[in-house]
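Dear colleagues,

As part of the handover before I leave the project, I'm documenting each prediction I ran so the next person doesn't have to rerun anything. This entry is a single chain, and its sequence is reproduced below.
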Amino acid sequence: MTPLKELNEQQRKREQEEIARAEKERAEKLRAEKAEKAEKERSAAEEKPLDERAAAARAAEKAAERALALARAAAAREKEEREKAKANPPAPARRAGEERGRASSGYSGERGSALRSDRARRTAPGGQGQRPFRNAERPGAAGTSGRRTAVSAGPAAPEKAGSRVKHDAARPQKKSYGNKSFETEKASLSQKNRSNRKQNKYGAAQSYERDDQLQHKSKKTGRGAFIRPEYVKPVEETIKSITLPETITIKELADKMKQKSAEIIKKLFLKGQMVTLNTELSYEEAENIAVDYDILCEKEEKVDVIAELVQDTETDTEKDLRPRPPVVVVMGHVDHGKTSILDAIRNTNVTSHEHGGITQSIGAYQVFVKVNGEERTITFLDTPGHEAFTAMRMRGAQATDIAVLVVAADDGVMPQTIEAINHAKAAGTQIIVAINKIDKPAANVDKVKQELMKYDLVAEDYGGDIICCPVSAKTGEGIENLLENIVLEADVMELKANPDRKAYGVVIEAELDKGRGSVARLLVQKGTLHVGDSVAAGSAYGRVRAMIDDKGRRIKKASPSMPVEILGLNSVPNAGEIFQVKDNEKEAKAYADTFVSEGRQKLVEESRKKVSLDALFDQIKAGELKELPLVIKADVQGSVEAVRDSLEKIENDEVRVRVIHSGVGAINESDVTLASASNAIVIGFDVKPDTTAKEIAEREKVDIRLYNIIYKAIEDIENAMKGMLAPVYEEKVIGHAVVRQIFRSSGVGVIAGSYVLDGMVQRGAKVRIHRGEELLHDGVIASVKRFKDDVKEVRTGYECGLVIEGFSDLKEEDQLEVYVMEEVSR
């Protein structure tokens, strides 16, 4: 820094200190004066009596009135003078002079107008009227203010006597008073510095420095300057709160907390946790981190969008409700005669059409029966009894009013019977027990009733409230009594629904038909379904093109408790989905799209929960985990679910089933191509491959297995998995020998001359060498010699020469135990 700069800097600092000190003193003085004045006024106000205050107020009011009257009078006079001036306009120079004189004198109002009129009288000769000055006598006269104004430079035009002098209009100049202009001092100083720079009086840096100094000087603060008080905001302590989901990444947590991700990672590193930006934290871990930053956490309440979608929003009034038929589900163990009872009721033979006599999909029928001479309608749902169809039984129980539990009189309560009882209880469905096969010699009805008591199902004749009806589906005995009890139970329940509203119900079953497309079997629970309605069922939507009842007849509408098949959906809905009728197809499509997106999000969350670093590490560490990939195709959606669930349950420690694709319909080209790429087996359940799929399967060597009964598929998959298991070997001792003599050979090494005590000694077999109680070596027999010949084996009672691979420390009387490893079938 140059000496000049240092000097300027010191001067500037000194000036700033003086200014600050002066301002401080002035502020203190002002505060003291204000306080003193306020104190005086307060004391004076307290001493002055009340009547004096009132008198002072009246005097102030009168003074204000007088001032207002004077102001009005002055305004009226000025108005009169303006009107006179308009009528007799004076000479421009004279008027300009008067105006400037009035402005310079500073008078205004009534007193100012009087002075102006008095001055005008004095200027006239003899004091009478006004007489214009001649151009020769008063050149450039412009009033009484003594200021000169600019006049036109041209020659003056001759005028007649008695006329006023006419002046040209002058350009306005900058008003100035003395040597001071209206421009600020700062601007004049900057202009001066610029001229100095042009003359190179200062260098550029010095000139700018002087500008700064002058700017500081121009900010004058002294006595009377206004000091604006600074408002200091009070600091309020706010408690920050954030909402967190069940799992959150560190980056998302940092964004919510308005903190840097690096700081959170650093804090966790110091605690010994190795994390990254994408590491997922549980709610508890995230809450512990947020507490360190004084942030409260609240758990996010998840709204189940799918549950909100399927909820029935329409409310039915009591006057709109009409009686409806009961919906009855028939449940029980496999082969206990559920479908046979329905056959007896419907007078049809459904069992003959079912593979293995086992129901493998939900059948829905509406039966018209005469009970006590009255025509009644009952809707029956026939559910599968095999253990694989748990999901179907659960859906059947939830969609119905009454559950008929079929138990064989000769078999008693079985596993699926217990499961059916649990499903019915969970759904809150009324249970009626039908004890079937009473025509058999081994039938024991009382035994069945006693077994049911273990599960809180006490028959009426045992003092309970459960109706038990002994029936025989083969002879038809007891069927009428069963129907009477079903109708009686329905009458007690007073089942009602509103038929005059949009249809609402449940998808019982769905399949993909080659000729008709997507076929959905629905059970209408509320309202009436018409042909042409826009229907949304889970991820499927469409317009009802055709409606078919359980007897195969085309119908136009379906009332409550009626099972129907509909055509027209764009895809196959999942069994158990809720279907709703929408106002138009656009609404139905929006419903289905929302359902798909939410379902996908739920799947992602579930898969995210299943994957953990520990499980991943264990699989990588083991390196022996094998998978059996499968492609499953079935005729109906319920069968797909059942087959997939059953096969995925078949697993052991080394092999597990992985279903890479499942769907409804025939096996097509894309299924075989996927199986070929994934080295998978194609399982077809009640479906067949088309011609193209067969050709590709033969060419690509893809294994396609077709089944009609589910447990056969399960058996085959179990056998395939056994073939994939790593072989298990078992040790088998084949002989013992003792070393009698040691031979040494330069080319071979140590040869043990041995005698076979029992069994045999084989080349390539494993051998344990014992010396007393000590195990010396566990190795392999490299070669066996009988005299000079190499042999494969030597049996009991013979001598031989043995060479042990990798071991030469043999001595006489060492004991040899020979064994082999054999594969054991699993």
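The longest strand covers residues 728-745. The two ends are 96 Å apart (CA to CA).

All the best with the project,
I.
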